[in-house]
Amino acid sequence: MSEAIVDGVRSVLAGRHVVVVGGTSGIGLAVARNVVRSGAEVTLVGRDGDRLRRAADEIGGARQCIGDLHDSAAFPGVFGSLPDIDHLVVTAGTASLKTLRESTAEDLRSTVEERLVGPLSIVRAALDRLRPTGSIVLTSGLLAERPTQRGAILAGAVAAVEAIVRSLALELAPIRVNAVSPGLVDTPLLDSFFGEAKHEALASAAAALPTRRIGRPDDIAQAVGLLLSSGFMTGEVVHVDGGGRLI
Ligand SMILES: NC(=O)c1ccc[n+]([C@@H]2O[C@H](COP(=O)([O-])OP(=O)(O)OC[C@H]3O[C@@H](n4cnc5c(N)ncnc54)[C@H](OP(=O)(O)O)[C@@H]3O)[C@@H](O)[C@H]2O)c1
Question: Does the keyword Nuclease apply (predicted)?
Fold first, then answer.
């Protein structure tokens, strides 16, 4: 990002309170690090106290809250203890790419819970704390537009996230609501996804992309910084995929 844009993001985020659900790893951790660098105060939400502490130490300090996308009923308690929120970023999620034949009914329900019910419950729980000048950023993904032969339920769920931000941008106005849609980004998520084949899989994916590299967490964090700071963007999905939708 150019220095002018970085300075713009900094000036808008300085002193703001940003909650990052999924801030213990990968993209969410990069978002948290970036907003702390911009002078914002950060609250990290994740499932595990040790991982939260490690992430908070890594970014130089953050408030920490336990929360699980599969336990929506607990979110009002999480947000009840927080000061007013300027921005809510939800990056939390996993990625299971089963075929429909391999998927149990529970797998299908679990994906919908993690990608839709959980994030929407978080937004609902945060509403009383969100300042009207603030914003929400949800996470979709390249699968919404570039399906593969696996993961139909995940593709549907992330596509639904994109419809949801357009709808909530109207319902929750003047709070702005946007989404970021990452392509392939090198995070711990991919370690578990590709296992030992990761290096080879990423090299071949990178060679096929117009950018000739796959994403870094910071690429997505920069786009999130723009969405948080740009007061005229709402109902938008920003694709940060190295051109993955074009090939
Ligand atoms: N990396 C990619 O290539 C890629 C591509 C497209 C979309 N995405 C999406 O981008 C988001 C971030 O992915 P990432 O690559 O940064 O993954 P990551 O490094 O594995 O981080 C995932 C984060 O989500 C949190 N999380 C997972 N399940 C949760 C749950 N049930 N409740 C609360 N928190 C939960 C984890 O927190 P704890 O484990 O500490 O609780 C962690 O902070 C995900 O939604 C992913 O699907 C990633």
Answer: no
